[in-house]
């Protein structure tokens, strides 16, 4: 897997303080630089393996500047997760999740899209961060997973409620059904990673996941 690229560390240098009050644009640029450096550092080295001093160096700011914005590493992790959730949310809104006329076609499309996203290096590194963080840091990291999953769950619940009712077999608990479906997609992802399956093989497994769910409609 390709590790996220970290900003180069300046050779014993920190950014020179500017005289006068910085502009709003300059403040926003510093904030963004800190969050980006912290995000890449957490992904590459994990929460415990990353220090505030290293993040300050990678962002090109002093430790004082960093601590004025984030009182400790936990607060910085929370800020990073909030920032990344917003960016991924924007990206997800540009994705067409509802391609297909039937429920099966839409479930297959959803599964294929999720499996394709799961192979992105940043997504894989994020999963490592979530799974590798413990304690309060782990809970904060898992907020990212929930923030990404919950809107997808809501969308699929709406799809199933609408299309399943049309063809006469609405589920008794659509949200539970969606969670089962997403669990199946996660299982396929793990199989794909362990067996190093290519995109075509994963696409076929996406069809199988939707088929298994829909063929068992008597259990809905």
From TrEMBL:
Gene3D superfamilies, per this entry? Answer: Tetracycline Repressor, domain 2 (1.10.357.10)
Coiled-coil ranges from the UniProt annotation: none
Q: Which keywords are on file for this protein? A: DNA-binding
Locate the DNA-binding region by residue range: 51-70
- InterPro entries the UniProt entry points to: Homeodomain-like_sf (IPR009057), HTH-type_TetR-like_transc_reg (IPR050109), HTH_TetR (IPR001647)
- What is this protein's record name? TetR/AcrR family transcriptional regulator
Specify the domain of life of the species encoding this protein.
Bacteria
Question: Region (Disordered) spans which residues?
Answer: 1-23
Q: Which PANTHER family match?
A: HTH-TYPE TRANSCRIPTIONAL DUAL REGULATOR CECR, HTH-TYPE TRANSCRIPTIONAL REGULATOR RUTR
| Residue ranges occupied by any HTH tetR-type domain in the UniProt entry | 28-88
Pfam families assigned? TetR_N
Task: List residues traversing the bilayer.
Answer: none
